[in-house]
Design goal:
Elements: E1 7-14, E2 20-28, H1 31-41, E3 47-52, E4 55-61, H2 62-66
Length: 67
């Protein structure tokens, strides 16, 4: 029996000018889990992006983050 180790995702939050204002690592089992964690962590952010390596997973605006 094998278990899948969580993947490392990077969460970048952007300011009103589109510049990175904050970045942090997220450990998640899959893309959807990483997006859910971003929503929980950054409810007050303007815009965030979730990345897995060089792959953009999601762009989340304020409405997405408040969901």
């Amino acid at each position: 029996m094998t278990t899948n180790a969580p993947s490392k995702y990077r969460l970048y939050c952007l300011d009103a000018l589109g510049r990175i204002s904050m970045a942090e690592w997220i450990d998640a089992e899959n893309d959807q889990h990483a997006i859910q964690q971003a929503q929980l962590l950054k409810r007050d952010a303007i815009k965030c992006e979730v990345w897995n390596g060089s792959r953009l997973v999601a762009r989340l605006d304020a409405d997405d983050l408040a969901a």
